[in-house]
Design a protein that fits this description.
The protein is an all-alpha fold and about 450 residues long. It has 21 helices and no strands. Helix 6 packs antiparallel against helix 11, helix 6 runs parallel beside helix 12 and helix 17 runs antiparallel to helix 18.
Length: about 450
């Protein structure tokens, strides 16, 4: 039986890699692989089951949250609220070691808690902060690294589009996943900030002389900073408290947040125009369409694997191995790191969840909510690992530099920090399970 399973897995992986090597879109490659697997590896007529996947895969109330959060992220970018957010956080963190470098991380963390998108976070914050930090005399590499790494917090700190996809693909509560990512997101942001503070203390030339701490002037700065960031605080509070308090589902919370964001865009920031509104809608439709095609293909692959009993047999095989589940988890982490160098985060999530989810939860007994958070951290890692790390390309394009190695070298310490955080999350799973267990 195991020989048949590994034979089928080899054929499926081979077909998928062959299609991807020809330049075929990943979504179509996945669906075609599913069709080939069911037609030639399964019993007669199995491929007929894929007919219902086209509609049923996206006929989900949970998935409605995806275009809503994408639209909210587009609104926040168009409204230029990131300018005032960056200005407010700068006043708070200016006197600390590392100064405005911390502003990148904290601003990304706050913006991520509204947009749910790593791309939106990196573009909105990096576009504002990079010219300002370079003008102030901050070192190029650590500036680029902080923008690139800070942007990844968009997929961990809730709301998170990746968590919505994971919840929809595995039938786990998106609300619990959102809350589970809160503490890990704060801890990881804190680790980023701590590294930059130590690095700037050891290398004084990486940052200009910082402002003096304390005094009436700093108290006044704190007061004015509040007026810069209060709209975002209201938006975050509305999303998180409504979900954690059980007053709204993530989809309902997203709808309310869009309403609040529209009011802020129109009456506070006063940058809303008909052209910008149409552009925000267009971007939302394009991104949502791409994601939905990917979801259909992922469900097709999941159905093919399930009908061929591959996840079940792999789970049994892995659970019977005479080694610790944590060594198997470490091996899976290595696989994700290698694949993350070659495949974008969302694509990697779509490809891997149908295979690894049953192994981790059914075979090894890991908590599915914890695995969702750990997997999201791995997806973050894939965003900043060369050569395909998407955030590296975004940050490089924002900087306008000719040499991408500046960005890659600058982000490398943050990759090490994320790996260290993943170890901490594995040793202390309560970081991810404490809040959802009390909802």
């Amino acid at each position: 039986m195991q020989a048949d399973v590994f034979y089928n897995v080899g054929i499926i992986v081979g077909v998928l890699l062959l299609l991807m090597s020809t330049g075929t879109w990943l979504s179509f490659s996945l669906y075609a692989t599913s069709l080939v697997a069911l037609m030639f590896l399964g019993r007669g007529g199995m491929h007929d089951a894929l007919e219902g996947v086209l509609l049923n895969s996206v006929n989900s109330y949970t998935l409605v949250a995806i275009p809503l959060f994408i639209f909210m992220g587009e609104i926040l970018i168009m409204s230029t609220c990131s300018n005032s957010l960056f200005r407010g956080v700068k006043k708070i963190l200016g006197p600390f070691p590392g100064g405005m470098l911390h502003t990148n991380i904290l601003t990304c963390s706050i913006f991520a808690a509204c947009s749910g998108s790593s791309t939106a976070t990196t573009v909105a914050v990096g576009g504002v902060s990079y010219p300002e930090l370079r003008k102030q005399g901050y070192a190029k590499r650590i500036t680029l690294g902080s923008i690139c790494a800070g942007g990844t917090l968009g997929v961990l700190i809730p709301p998170s589009i990746m968590m919505i996809l994971y919840g929809a693909m595995t039938n786990n509560s998106v609300g619990k996943l959102f809350i589970a990512g809160l503490i890990p997101g704060i801890v990881l942001a804190g680790m980023f900030i701590l590294y930059m503070a130590i690095a700037c203390l050891k290398n004084p030339d990486w940052a200009p002389a910082r402002n003096k701490f304390g005094g009436i002037g700093y108290i006044k700065d704190l007061g004015s900073a509040f007026f810069d960031i209060w709209p975002i605080i209201v938006l975050i509070g509305g999303i998180m408290m409504s979900i954690y308090g059980g007053f709204a589902t993530p989809t309902e919370a997203a709808a309310v947040a869009i309403f609040i964001a529209m009011i802020l865009w129109k009456f506070l920031y006063r940058t809303m125009t008909r052209k910008l509104f149409i552009k925000a809608v267009e971007e939302t439709v394009i991104i949502t369409g791409q994601l939905m095609i990917g979801i259909i293909s992922a469900r097709a692959l999941g159905m093919a694997l399930s009908l061929l009993d591959i996840p079940k047999n792999l789970s049994i095989f892995v659970s019977e191995l005479p080694i610790s589940p944590f060594f198997i988890w470490m091996f899976i982490v290595v696989i994700y790191m290698v694949l993350g160098c070659l495949v974008d985060g969302l694509d990697l999530l779509i490809i891997s969840v149908p295979v690894f989810y049953p192994i981790m939860t059914s075979g090894l007994g890991f908590d599915p909510i914890w695995f969702g958070v750990a997997l999201t951290v791995l997806m973050e890692l894939s965003l900043i690992t060369p050569p395909v790390g998407f955030n590296i390309y975004i940050t490089h394009s924002i900087s306008g530099e000719s040499n991408m190695m500046e960005t890659i070298i600058g982000v490398f310490p943050f990759v090490i920090i994320m790996l260290a955080f993943l170890i901490i999350l594995t040793i202390f799973p309560e970081l991810a399970t404490f809040l959802p267990n009390r909802m």
